[in-house]
Design brief:
Helix content: 40-55%
Largest sheet: 4 strands, antiparallel
CATH topology: Sufe protein. Chain: A
Order of helices and strands: HEHEEEEHEH
Number of helices: 4
Number of domains: 1
Shape: elongated
Number of strands: 6
Radius of gyration: 19 Å
CATH architecture: Alpha-Beta Complex
Strand content: 15-25%
Length: about 150
């Protein structure tokens, strides 16, 4: 019986910390690109860098589809200048609660940088924001399809 009380106490403390972290938010970086965990991404980066020197898109601003990111919708706008993807604007992203806001604000920077570097929508999924990453890929792919 004593062990049961001890285990219950430890689990209770853990649950309190989890709830406080979700309520307060975290100053830590909860999202990291899978490419930092997976060495296979280097071959894909090398392959896409050769395509980035070509002008493959028509200049303009193209709006992608609204994609479901599970906790909300995500939609991006692709800005093409000089035939290259130069900027990505997030028109909509999941931001209903502090956790979603925190995760998506961090993930959006990583996704945007990688997409501009790759010059396409085939970016690595961001750990901790996998649904948003997939929605980003879908929305950006539809915007870039319009720019071809």
């Amino acid at each position: 019986m004593k062990k049961y009380i001890q285990i219950t106490f430890v689990l209770g403390i853990f649950a309190v910390f989890v709830l406080l972290r979700q309520f307060k938010g975290s100053d830590e970086n909860p999202v990291t690109p899978i490419s930092q965990q997976n060495s296979n991404s280097t071959s894909r980066t090398t392959q896409t860098s050769s395509n980035s020197s070509q002008n493959i898109y028509k200049d303009g601003t193209y709006t992608g589809i609204v994609a479901d990111a599970f906790y909300g919708n995500l939609q991006v706008q692709a800005v093409i200048q000089g035939g290259r993807l130069s900027d990505i604007v997030f028109l909509e992203y999941p931001n209903d609660n502090p956790t979603s806001r925190s995760i998506n604000q961090q993930a959006s920077v990583l996704l945007k940088e990688e997409a501009i570097r790759a010059q396409n929508s085939q970016v690595d999924i961001v750990t901790g924001a996998s649904d948003s990453s997939r929605a980003f890929q879908q929305s950006l792919a539809s915007a870039l399809a319009q720019a071809k």
